[in-house]
Design goal:
This protein has helices at about 5-10, 15-30, 35-45, 45-55, 65-70, 75-85, 110-120, 125-130, 135-150; strands spanning about 60, 90-95, 100-105. The protein has about 150 residues and is mainly α. The chain has a three-stranded antiparallel β-sheet. Strand 2 (about 90-95) and strand 3 form a beta hairpin.
Length: about 150
């Protein structure tokens, strides 16, 4: 028995479907195929340090820019940067246009570690690789549209 027609119609409301999709995506990405532990074990860094390193590896950033991209406050960002610098993974230099600012750049070792993390994080789970082509194409189209709608410049 499926229940009353009114209840069945309500369960197909867009907000209910969006909720199921969101819950399913979170479950797949953050619970069943969470790569953060693998990254931390492979790199010896906390995940926030890996995130910071990957952002810096994409191109030099100021401390302010890194804090904004990590959504962390400046004191915590400084702790993260101090640790990455102490490990020889990044270098801190004076901003060429503003001596009060510090610029962050990745070292060769930092780039190597960032590439290890990227390899782990970018490796799709088998369940996704095994989807039929049509399903994978549809999912790709939808996810791409959502990402572009949220951040068109990226």
């Amino acid at each position: 028995m499926t229940g009353s027609p009114a209840r069945d119609a309500a369960s197909d409301a867009p907000s209910d479907a969006a909720g199921r999709v969101w819950t399913g995506m979170r479950t797949l990405v953050l619970e069943r195929h969470d790569r953060r532990r693998q990254v931390t074990e492979a790199t010896g860094l906390s995940f926030v340090r890996v995130k910071a390193l990957r952002r810096i590896a994409a191109g030099p950033l100021s401390m302010r820019e890194l804090a904004a991209r990590l959504s962390t406050d400046k004191p915590y960002t400084t702790l993260v940067v101090d640790d990455l610098e102490r490990r020889g993974l990044i270098e801190r230099t004076i901003h060429p246009a503003d001596r009060r600012q510090r610029m962050l750049a990745v070292t060769p070792e930092g780039l190597r570690i960032a590439q290890i993390a990227r390899g782990i994080l970018d490796d799709p789970p088998e369940i996704l690789r095994d989807l039929p082509r049509a399903d994978l194409a549809a999912l790709d189209r939808v996810i791409t549209a959502l990402v572009e709608a949220e951040h068109p410049a990226e």
